Amino acid sequence: MFSRAGEIALKIMIYLATDQQQGRWIGLREIVQEIDGPEAFTAKVLQRLTRQGLIRSLRGPSGGFQLPNHRAITLHEIIIAIDGEGIFTKCVLGLAECSESCPCPVHDKFKAVRDHLAGVLISTTIDEVKEGLLLGHYYLKV
Questions:
Q1: Which pTM value belongs to this model?
Q2: In this structure, which of 25, 70, 101, 116 has its CB flanked by the most CB atoms within 10 Å?
Q3: Which run of H or of E encompasses 41?
Q4: Is the pLDDT score of 62 beyond 90?
Q5: Could you tell me what percentage of the chain is helix, strand and coil, using 3-state DSSP and rounding each to the nearest 5?
Q6: Whether the predicted pLDDT of 141 surpasses 80
């Protein structure tokens, strides 16, 4: 559904959220191990998340990454930062012209799915997901 970078970004953000109570900087290798992501690709996603202001980074041997303090981050913000608005605006069939006035054959059905997806992502914060993860209701890897 999302790009590989979007999936990795969601996993990174959720993992960082689960460790925030300790307030420590989490290194690239630990993140890669915990989310089962390829190191070079994960590093690029971390850079994009940092540039977008969704995470903080600190260079050096005791550096790493962490979430900003006291900021509710939605899944929607993460996907937009990595994948852009395309998943919510582009034609599912890839047509250049697809709108309410000039719809593709699946425009109306896909619009409902897209609107529902946007609503779920907008209304779900990393903290909500973190709580379920810490309670053992959800898993980042099996």
A1: 0.89
A2: 25
A3: helix 39-51
A4: no
A5: 55, 5, 40
A6: no
Distances (CA, A) of 36 to 39, 93, 126, 142: 9, 32, 19, 10
- Dmax (CA) of the chain: 56
Rounded Cα distance between 34 and 125, Å, is: 20
Q: What is the 3-state secondary structure (H, E, C) of 71-101?
A: CCCEHHHHHHHHHCCHHHHCCCCCCCCCCCC
65: left (phi over 0), alpha (psi -120 to 50) or beta: beta
What single DSSP character describes residue 108? Answer: H
**CA atoms 63, 69, 75, 81: torsion sign:** negative
CA distances from 117 to 68, 86, 111, 124 (A): 25, 13, 10, 11
